[in-house]
Sequence to fold (301 residues):
Amino acid sequence: MTTAIAPELHSPASAEATSDVRSVATPEAAVAVSPALLAEHVTKRFVVDRRKAPVTAIEDVSLRLERGTIHGVLGANGSGKSTLIRLVSGLLTLDEGRVEVFGHDIEREELAVKRLINRVSVDAAFFKKLSPMENLLFAARLYGLDAGEAKRQAAVILARLGIGESRLGRPVEQMSRGMQQKVAIARALLTSPTLLLLDEPTTGLDPRSKLDVQAFVEEVRDVHGATIVLTTHDLAEAERLCDRITILAGGRVVAEDTPAGLKRLVNERYGQPETLEAVFMTFTGRSLDDDDVESAEADTE
Ligand SMILES: Nc1ncnc2c1ncn2[C@@H]1O[C@H](COP(=O)(O)OP(=O)(O)OP(=O)(O)O)[C@@H](O)[C@H]1O
Ligand SMILES: [Mg+2]
Fold:
């Protein structure tokens, strides 16, 4: 059976590419402990105008995500969240640093990495004239999934996200943005999802749809053991879903911890209330009490 929500990958080859392992008794053992995502000193610059200095969108970012966790990336508009996600998914090339997905180097082992990750962004692209089911089956074919199994799985995932049978056959272009967003998530889950990159997956969804998607994201982690990177501007969502949170400001990591750890930190160090909002304001330079906050200098653009 071709399980859509693929569990683990065991490839001895990946051990060779993995320097950051705790056990190296056998190649298999090494693979077993390589993190889902490892980014080391990643930098990305964009040349917007040749006469001017490039824009540094991501600067010296290091991240380590253990398997089976949901990792939030928070930051103000333009802080580099989407760029980071696009770098990890291979849509952009790294200027500096390295990234490994389950022990596979994203530059040297592009194909292996492509099979293990999928990205959903707010501006997901579809064949608009095709139905949700057709879009999902097309994606399944690209990934070499068995058609019959893919169809069965697609119906289950779409139903789970609240897209009933009656909508499965109608063109995507007739659906609302929120509905299209759910189809995009369903498609990502169908085709890969050992490491799922969700860039603002619930932006623009109504409250009920948002809850559907959030519950589903948790389910994907809990039941299928997927590892998830999630960007969001919804702090309640981050608090609910994330095991750990990285905060970016001006392309740099300015804080990283569990939600509880971050809240405790701003309370103990800066006398702020123990809320994720205070954490965000403190570390992104928009403090509730600017005088007190050293980290607030972080240069958001
Ligand atoms: N293709 C590009 N060309 C030039 N500059 C870019 C490009 N993509 C992103 N940038 C710049 O990189 C910086 C980071 O952008 P990015 O989209 O990663 O931010 P973000 O944190 O996702 O913001 P938002 O919360 O608005 O989605 C911004 O200054 C942006 O203008
Ligand atoms: Mg973005």
